[in-house]
Amino acid sequence: MSLVLAIAATLQVATITPPAAPTTAVGFETARRYASNATQGVAVGPHDLYAVSNFNIVRLDKKTGEKRGEWTGQRSRFPHINSCAVIAKDLVCASSNFPGTPHVSTVEFFDPMTLAHRKSVSLGLGTGSITWVDRKDGFWWAMFANYDAKGGEAPRDHRHTTLVKFDDQWRRLEGWALPASILERIKPMSISGGGWGPDGRLYLSGHDLPELYVVALPNGGGVLDHLETLPMEAEGQAIDWDESDKGTLYGITRRSREILRMTAPTSVKR
């Protein structure tokens, strides 16, 4: 092999080898389990939990776990509600046509008490399949998933998963890619859940692995900074921080469809 080819091969290996993911041994501890039918994720309010399962949302009493209400939408119109979050006076949900293509993404607003559907915001085509929505610093934030196989829209793949910042009129302001250390963990799928934590950092969950990726907006460039990876019991899927109980995160386990109340490490609470 010539010197030029050897150098080229070395550079190629360096390019495709992802950096090691930063990890922390101390993770989230499961404090309570709730029986539910959740398949996609969970949302949490001051007094309620919401089990999310595609075109079905069930409201549960957070204290007792008793069912308080249920909404079932038209499957053709709401094929894949992936996650929800209680934001101000609305239950705000990320909805798409996954695994259909081309990707169509909407944000759905519900009454958090009656679960009546209030309105839809259509985000159209071309970015990916929306998986979660959150609100911070006067802006909307959303993650658009892309996949290698099922639900994928060529030529995009998992590497095209994107965090997008919107204004109040849902106009795109900025966008960020995921670092290689996270992409290597989630492939061939994508990011399923996420939300801003009580410490101001962004927490992301994948589709299968029981871990959270803690990221921050970069000081420069367009790739999120991967700060650490925290273990948890929930095997990915949609998560939600309890804003009424600092340091408490909710997720689900697909093995039993239970909702999990998890306590964050002390470092996260501060």
From TrEMBL:
The keyword Signal applies. Keywords: Signal. The lineage of its organism: Bacteria, Pseudomonadati, Pseudomonadota, Alphaproteobacteria, Caulobacterales. It comes from Caulobacter vibrioides. This is Uncharacterized protein. Residues 1-20 form the signal peptide. SUPFAM superfamilies: 3-carboxy-cis,cis-mucoante lactonizing enzyme.
